[in-house]
Amino acid sequence: MIRNPRDLVRYNASERANHWVVGICFILLALSGLAFFHPALFPLTQLFGGGAWTRILHPYIGVVMALSFLVMALRFAKLNIMEPRDYEWLKNVDKMIDGDDHNMPEQGKYNGGQKLLFWGLVISMAAITVSGVFMWRAWWTPAVDIVRLASVVHAIAAVAMIGLIIMHVYAAIWTRGTIRAMMYGTVTRAWAKQHHRGWYRKVTGDND
User: Fold this and answer.
1) What pLDDT score does 100 carry?
2) pTM, full prediction
3) Nearest residue to 174 (alpha-carbon basis) of 67, 99, 121, 117
4) CB < 8 Å & 24+ apart, contacts of 25-34
């Protein structure tokens, strides 16, 4: 893709690589986890070489995702702290859904919805990671009751995270120009000014 020199850099190469590592790990973990969630989905284990290999690979892929997600969370935590304007944005989210997003409250790099999604993912990932460690009972947890409780928490948190990721993907597709930011790292000035005017002002110095 030929970059327009007037485009704004939204994500650098390192941030994009971090995001895609987490994304790929999530897909692999969702498929392998669902394979064990219900017998009807067990054929998904064939994608990983069978049931035994799926059981072996799932926790190790989980470790990669947990560490990569931690890096991403630390990178973007400050940018996702809720502000008064974010709550105002959430109060008016129905207007945006109806297509009237031109009069939404001015937002920084992320809007109120994105920030809530971010913290929802952080909580879900923390629950999945901690419960996953306890479920790795051959190494960590001798108590069967703890393993059972961890399994329930793991399943609930995983379902929650799958739901949040579906929302994330849908919003990225629905807001035209968003996927380009994570693919190529840039957005147009018009996109930035319409969807994240506060961030646009900050990076361009344009107060119009």
Assistant:
1) 66
2) 0.89
3) 99
4) 25/61, 25/62, 25/64, 25/65, 25/68, 26/65, 26/161, 26/165, 28/57, 28/61, 29/58, 29/61, 29/62, 29/65, 30/158, 30/162, 32/57, 32/58, 32/61, 33/58, 33/158
What are the phi and psi torsion angles at 150 (to 5°)?
A: -60, -35
- To 10 degrees, what angle do helices 13-37 and 144-174 make? 130
**E-strand stretches of 29-102:** none
Residues of the chain with pLDDT under 70: 1-3, 98-102, 138, 141, 207-208
Q: Which amino acid is at 94?
A: D
Tell me the β-bridge partners of 187: 8
Residue 122 near residue 161, CB atoms below 8 Å: no
Task: Say if CB 8 and CB 204 are below 8 A apart.
Answer: yes
**Packing angle of the helix pair 51-76, 13-37 (nearest 10 deg):** 140
Q: Rounded distance, CA 30 to CA 47, Å? A: 12
168 is catalytic: yes
Give the span between the Cα atoms of 153 and 200, in whole angstroms. Answer: 40
Residue 203: how many CB atoms within 10 A of its CB? 14
**How many C-beta neighbours within 10 Å does residue 176 have?**
10
The one catalytic residue in 38, 102, 154, 168 is 168
